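Reader question, answered in our methods column.
A reader sent in the components of a multi-part assembly and asked whether the whole thing could be modeled at once rather than chain by chain. We filled in our standard form and ran it. Here is what they sent:
COMPLEX SIZE: two components
ENTRIES:
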Amino acid sequence: EAGVVQSPRYKIIEKKQPVAFWCNPISGHNTLYWYRQNLGQGPELLIRYENEEAVDDSQLPKDRFSAERLKGVDSTLKIQPAELGDSAVYLCASSSRGGGSYEQYFGPGTRLTVT
Amino acid sequence: AQSVTQLDSHVSVSEGTPVLLRCNYSSSYSPSLFWYVQHPNKGLQLLLKYTSAATLVKGINGFEAEFKKSETSFHLTKPSAHMSDAAEYFCTCTPSGYSTLTFGKGTMLLVSP
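And here is the structure of the entire assembly that came back:
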């Protein structure tokens, strides 16, 4: 079975530029997560989707970040405009259902560098 | 609210010696607990999980962890380290029935020949 796919793997942009990340979850997984992992830290949840509905976006900086999951399959996370502090690895994960007992499968991440 | 504390940022062992990675949690509810491993430039991979069944949990690659409620701990162990175990390990928890994982800051495991 194919895993969680993310693209691009690496992105370097100048501050104030926009950037977008794409995630394709494991087929049949209804729950999709976006995490941000700063250097030397554990991942922190940005947003969680159940199908196409964002059910937890309390940690998403909504002034510059946006996300969508049209049709409840793949998802896009956007930053506009990017700031130096946004440099991090952005991880996408999916699970068959929500709930703590369901394993989350992670993609390889997108490493963003803002200069 | 829940939190996870990984007590060591780095652990160094020799190949063939035991591994102990320590994790303490704080949760208002009965938690589900997980250990994930992250190799360089790879996604996180689940090693094992505790979800209120047996307190001693066996995972992949010879790892196991014991849930100790009285000590609020979920330490990860392996009897004999292998070079391929060198990676970063994350302890996470979530209140039972919830989805949002709270990650620790990670422990980097270094394995020397």
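What stands out: Residues 5-99 of chain A form a domain with the Immunoglobulin-like fold (CATH 2.60.40.10). The interface with chain B takes residues 3-4, 31, 33, 40-45, 48, 56, 91, 93, 95, 98-109 of chain A (CB under 8 Å).
Send us your own complexes using the same form.
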